[in-house]
Specification:
The chain contains six helices and 38 strands. The protein is mostly beta strands and 754 residues long.
Length: 754
C-alpha cells in the first residue's frame, strides 16, 4: 500500500503524461527516406491514437539487461515479468492487461509475432534494445499493422537510423547471479558513395535466480545499405540464439514458503529414492531474420517502400520424463529377458522448424495538408512440430532411437493484408484521420500431436478493421484527440489444438458433441486524450474504453509446454484512465510518473474445470461449471503506476562531473487474479518495487551502477492455475504455479564509444 501512496502522491503533483521525441538524423534526406521504411505502422504527431516514443538513449539507460520488456517496464500501463526472476531469459509484458499474443510487434514494418501462437518470445531476440534506434509503443488498437492483429497494443521498432559518421562501441555488464552481458557494435557511417554498414553482437549469460533459470543468449545484427539521391537499398540481418533452462512450471504457494528458488523442472528419483535433476532440461531456439528493403522518393511528396522478409526458426526443448508409458511415445512395450515393460524413464526432445516469408509494400503521399499511406502485406508461414525419444532407461544406449519418430504435424498459414490510412488538415489545427484495413487469414493444420491425436483442421477468416478520429492542436503546446476503432483477431494454434485434444479426451470418455467451437475476437476501442508539452513540462491524460465481444480469455490452465488455454466469453471490457508526466523542475532535478486506473470486467463468465468421480479413482466425467457475474479479467491489475526522480548534483559544473546522475524509480502493480473468478485464494498481492541507478560519463567512457528491487521486496509477479472437481468429496483440487522475482540485486555497466 505504501508503494501505491508513493505513486499517487507524485501523480497528484504531476497528473498527466509525456510523449518522447524520436531522434532526428543530421541529414534531412537520410531522415526522410528512413522514416518511409517504418511509416506504414507508426503514428505521427497528429495521429489520434495513444502512444509514447522511446529513443535510443533512453533504451540504453533504462536497463543494462537490454531485454525489451524490461526496458519498457516503466511506460504507462506496462507490466513486465521474468520467469527466472532476474530479467534475462524468458521475459514477457502486458499493456493494459493485454498479453503478448495480443500485442503486435514489428521491426521496420515487418511483424515479429509467431504466426501460429501470435506471440513474440523475447528470449529469442535478446539484447534487441541495444540494436534498435527507436520504439513506438501504441496502446489500444492503434494504427493498422501487418501480421498478427494488434488487440491491445503494438510495438513498432526501427533500425533505420543512419549515422553520418563512423562509430564503434563496446559495453560490458556484470551483476548478481552470475550475470554477464557484452555488446559490441561498429558502423561505417554514410560514405561519399552512399554506402553504409552497421554490425552489432551481444551475448548474455546468467545463472538465474531460481534453480535451472540459467541462460546463454546471443544476438547479432548487420545492416548493409546504399543511399543515393532519392533511392535507398538496405539489407538487414538479425539473429537470436538462446539456450535456457526450463522455468515455465513455476512453484506452488506451499513450496514458495519453503524455498522460493526451487524449480521442479528435470526432477526425478532413482531406485533408492534419491532426488536428481537432469542437467540438460533446456529450451533451445535459433531465429534468423533477413530483410531486403528498397525505398524510392518520387518527389518531396511521394515515396514508395517495399520490403521482403525471410525468417527461419529452429528449436527444441529437452526433458527428462520419469515413470511414463511406452505407449505415450507411440512405442511398443519392449520385452527384455522375457519381461515385458510398459513404462520407464525417458529423455525426450520436442522440436519445431518454420519458414516465414513476407512481402510488404506501401506508398506514402504527404503535401503538408494531406498525409496518405496505402499498403499491402502478403505472408506465408510453414511450420513443422515433431518429437523424438533420445533415451530410455529400459532400452538403454544401444537402441536405435533415430529409427522412431514420435510425432509430426504441420501448420500452414497464409495472410493477405491491405490498408489505406489518411490524415487531412481540415481546418486550422484540426486534423481528421481515417484508417481502413482488410485482413484475410487461411489456416491449415495436419498430422498427429504428441499423443497421437490428429490435428487436422482448416479454417479461414476475413476481417475489416476501420479506424477514425480527430486531432485538434490549438497551440504549439496543447493537443486534444479522440478516436474510435474496430479490430478482430483470429484464434491461435494452441487455442485450436487444445480444443481438439479436449474433444478427443471427452469422446474417449463417452462424451460426444465437443469440437473446435471457437470464434474470433472483436473489440471496439475508443480513445480520448489531451496533451500539453513545453520545454520544461509535458503532461497528458487519456481515457480509454476497450469493449470486447467473444474475447479469448485464459482460463488459468497451462498445457504441458506452457501454453495458456483460452476460451471465448461473450462480453467483457477494459476501461480506464492513464495519467503521466515529465517535469524538468530544475537543471539538476527531474520528476516523472504515470498511473493507470482501470476496471477490467467480464459481464457473465462460466468457469469450467475437469470433473472426476472421486480422489481415489479419478474417472473423468466431463466438465464442472460455475457461473459468475461481473468478474475480473485475470492478470489485469486495476492500478499500475510508476514514479521517478533524477538528481544531477553537478549539473552547473563545466567539466565531466555535470554528467553524473542518480535516478530512483518505483513501480506499483495492483492486485491481480490468476483465474477469472475474482477468487482471493487465487490472486497475486499488489507489489511495489524500486530501482536505483547511478551514472557518470567521462570522455568516451560511461559508467553506471544499477540496484534492482532496491527495497528488497519478496514478491511474485505471475501465476497460473489448474482446477479439478470431485463429485463424491464435493471438493476442488488445485494445481498452481507462481513465479518468484529476485530480491535486491545489482549490475555494473561500463560503456565505451567514439
Amino acid at each position: 500500500m505504501r508503494g501505491f501512496l508513493f505513486i499517487a502522491a507524485l501523480s497528484v503533483l504531476i497528473p498527466f503524461s509525456v510523449q518522447g521525441a524520436e531522434e532526428e538524423a543530421a541529414d534531412k534526406k537520410v531522415e526522410r527516406l528512413d522514416s518511409v521504411v517504418v511509416s506504414s505502422s507508426r503514428a505521427g504527431q497528429n495521429t489520434p491514437v495513444t502512444f509514447t516514443m522511446v529513443g535510443k538513449d533512453e533504451l540504453r539507460r533504462s536497463n543494462p539487461l537490454n531485454s525489451l520488456p524490461m526496458n519498457l517496464a516503466l511506460q504507462p500501463s506496462v507490466v513486465s515479468v521474468n520467469e527466472g526472476g532476474t530479467g534475462l531469459g524468458y521475459s514477457k509484458m502486458t499493456v493494459r492487461g493485454s498479453k503478448g499474443s495480443q500485442i503486435n510487434v514489428t521491426l521496420n514494418g515487418i511483424t515479429l509475432n509467431d504466426a501460429e501462437s501470435q506471440e513474440v518470445f523475447w528470449v529469442n531476440i535478446p539484447a534487441l534494445s541495444s540494436m534498435i534506434s527507436s520504439v513506438q509503443l501504441q496502446r489500444g488498437l492503434g494504427t493498422s499493422a501487418n501480421g498478427a492483429g494488434a488487440f491491445g497494443a503494438s510495438i513498432n521498432m526501427s533500425t533505420a537510423a543512419v549515422s553520418p559518421e563512423p562509430s564503434a562501441s563496446a559495453e560490458m555488464s556484470v551483476g548478481s547471479y552470475g550475470t554477464f552481458i557484452s555488446t559490441f557494435a561498429v558502423g561505417s557511417g554514410l560514405t561519399k558513395s552512399g554506402v553504409y554498414f552497421n554490425a552489432a553482437y551481444s551475448r548474455g549469460l546468467t545463472d538465474g535466480y531460481i534453480r535451472n533459470a540459467y541462460a546463454d543468449v546471443h544476438s547479432a545484427m548487420a545492416v548493409l545499405g546504399w543511399m543515393k539521391g532519392d533511392n535507398s537499398l538496405r539489407l538487414t540481418y538479425l539473429m537470436g540464439n538462446q539456450k535456457t533452462g526450463i522455468t515455465w512450471e513455476g512453484i506452488s504457494l506451499e513450496q514458495y514458503e519453503k524455498d522460493r528458488r526451487y524449480n521442479p523442472a528435470g526432477e526425478y528419483y532413482d531406485h533408492m529414492g534419491n532426488v536428481h535433476y537432469y542437467d540438460n532440461e533446456t529450451d533451445n531456439y535459433a531465429q534468423h531474420h533477413l530483410q531486403l528493403n528498397y525505398t524510392h522518393s518520387f518527389s518531396d511528396r511521394l515515396a514508395w517502400s517495399t520490403t521482403f522478409n525471410y525468417t527461419r526458426g529452429d528449436g527444441y526443448y529437452e526433458n527428462y520424463k520419469a515413470g511414463k508409458s511406452f505407449s505415450k511415445y507411440m512405442m511398443q512395450n519392449p520385452v527384455i529377458n522375457g519381461v515385458e515393460y510398459d513404462e520407464g524413464d525417458f529423455i525426450t526432445r520436442e522440436a519445431l522448424a518454420n519458414d516465414y516469408y513476407v512481402l510488404n509494400s506501401d506508398l506514402r503521399y504527404n503535401d503538408g495538408k494531406l498525409n496518405l499511406t496505402a499498403g499491402i502485406n502478403l505472408s506465408r508461414y510453414d511450420g513443422d512440430h515433431f518429437g523424438r525419444v533420445l533415451w530410455s532407461n529400459v532400452l538403454g544406449d544401444s537402441y536405435d532411437y533415430d529409427s522412431h519418430r514420435w510425432y509430426l504435424n504441420r501448420g500452414l498459414k497464409h495472410e493477405a493484408n491491405a490498408f489505406v490510412r489518411g490524415e487531412m488538415l481540415v481546418a486550422d489545427g484540426l486534423t481528421a484521420y481515417a484508417d481502413l484495413q482488410y485482413r484475410g487469414v487461411w489456416l491449415n493444420m495436419s498430422g498427429p500431436e504428441d499423443d497421437g491425436v490428429l490435428l487436422d483442421h482448416k479454417d479461414n477468416w476475413q476481417f475489416f478493421n476501420p479506424r477514425a478520429g480527430l486531432s485538434w492542436r490549438w497551440s504549439a503546446s496543447s493537443r486534444l484527440y479522440a478516436s474510435a476503432a474496430l479490430g478482430h483477431r483470429e484464434p491461435g494454434r494452441s487455442d485450436i489444438k487444445e480444443l481438439i485434444l479436449d474433444a478427443n479426451k471427452a469422446a474417449s470418455a463417452g462424451i460426444e458433441g465437443r469440437g473446435v467451437d471457437i470464434k474470433p475476437e472483436k473489440m471496439v476501442d475508443i480513445e480520448l486524450g489531451y496533451e500539453y508539452s513545453t520545454e520544461r513540462l509535458a503532461l497528458s491524460a487519456n481515457l480509454y474504453l476497450m469493449e470486447y465481444w467473444d474475447m479469448l480469455l485464459e482460463t488459468g490452465k497451462l498445457s504441458d509446454v506452457g501454453y495458456a488455454i483460452k476460451e471465448n466469453v461473450p462480453r467483457s471490457w477494459r476501461r480506464g484512465i492513464e495519467l503521466a508526466a515529465d517535469w524538468n523542475a530544475f537543471r539538476w532535478l527531474q520528476f516523472g510518473g504515470n498511473i493507470t486506473l482501470s476496471a477490467n470486467k467480464i459481464r457473465a463468465y462460466t468457469a469450467y474445470c475437469e470433473m472426476y468421480d472421486n480422489m481415489n479413482d479419478w474417472n473423468y466425467l466431463g466438465q464442472h461449471k460455475v457461473d459468475y457475474e461481473n468478474t475480473d479479467i485475470l492478470m489485469t491489475p486495476s492500478v499500475v503506476g510508476m514514479a521517478s526522480v533524477t538528481f544531477r548534483p553537478f549539473a552547473f559544473m563545466a567539466n565531466s562531473l555535470k554528467t553524473a546522475y542518480v535516478t530512483l524509480n518505483g513501480k506499483y502493480v495492483g492486485k491481480q487474479y490468476y483465474d477469472n473468478t475474482s477468487s482471493k485464494e487465487h490472486s497475486i498481492p499488489a507489489y511495489f518495487t524500486g530501482d536505483l541507478s547511478l551514472g557518470y560519463e567521462i570522455s568516451s567512457l560511461a559508467f553506471s551502477f544499477h540496484v534492482h528491487n532496491v527495497f528488497n521486496r519478496k514478491y511474485y509477479a505471475d501465476a497460473w492455475l489448474w482446477k479439478a472437481y470431485f463429485i463424491e468429496e464435493d471438493l476442488y483440487y488445485c494445481d498452481e504455479g507462481i513465479y518468484p522475482q529476485a530480491p535486491m540485486n545489482w549490475m555494473f555497466k561500463v560503456s565505451w564509444k567514439f
